[in-house]
Amino acid sequence: MSGRTRAGAFLVSAATLVAAPSLAADDPAVLKDLTAVIALQGQPCGQVVTATKQGDNDYVVACRDGSRYRVFVNAEGRVVVQKQ
Would you give the distance in Å from CA 63 to the centre of its chain? Predict the structure, then answer.
């Protein structure tokens, strides 16, 4: 995947996180977007299987491989993936 394609995919995923706070965390589209965001940040996950919404643009997710992450938008507007 080219750098330009990765950047575009990241922006689309980040925009989805920001623009869709009213979606249910168990919505398959939200799980897919969270999976993409984690992968684009270079973290191992495989696939997000559950997501718990903590607040606006703030999720705690569990991956199929057993990993857990907090995915949120920080004060600077950047998407952050923190291993839990």
Answer: 11
Block means of pLDDT (10 residues each) for the chain, 84 residues, are 54 54 70 96 95 94 96 96 96
Closest to 21 (Cα-Cα) out of 50, 58, 46, 52: 58
Between CA 64 and CA 49 the distance in angstroms is 6
- Domain parsing of the chain, residue ranges: 3-83
Structure tokens at 49: 């299987």
pLDDT in the model for residue 80: 96
The per-residue pLDDT for 26 is 74
| Dihedral sign of CA atoms 22, 25, 31, 36 in order | positive
Q: What is the largest CA-CA distance in the chain?
A: 33
pTM for the full predicted model: 0.70
Residue with tokens 């952050």: 80
